[in-house]
Amino acid sequence: MTVNMKKILTYTIALATLVFAAPACETFLDSESPSTFDASTVYSNYDLTESTIFSISQSFGETNSYRSRYLSWVGLNSDIEWYNTYKPTDEKYQIAGYAMLPNNGQLNLNNGPFAKMYEAIERANLCIEGIREYGNITENANMAYLLGEALTLRALIYYDIVRVWGDVPARFSSVTSENIYVKKESRDVIFKQLLSDLDEAIPYLPNPGQTTATSRTDRVNKMFAEGLYARIALMASGYAIRPDDGMVGTGDLGTVRLTNDPELQKSVLYPKALEYLRAAINSGTASLEDYETLWKNQSNMNNLTAGPGHETLFVIPFSEGRGRWNYTFAVRSEGSTYAGGANVTRGGDAGPVPTMWFKYDKNDVRRDITCVNWRWNSDNEPELPGIQRWYFGKYRFEWMTSHPYTGGNDDGVKPVVLRYSDVLLMAAEIANELGDTQEAKRYLLAVRERAFKGNEDQAESYVASISSKDDMFKAIVDERALEFCGEMTRKFDLIRWNMLKTKMDEAIADMKALRDLSGKYADINGLDGDVYYQVSGSQISIYGFNGEKTAPAGAWEKKAGYINKTVDSKGADTGLYDALVEGLYYGDPIQHMFWPIFNDTMTNSQGYIKNDYGYDSI
Question: Which end of the chain, C or N, has fewer beta carbons within 10 A?
Answer without folding.
Answer: N
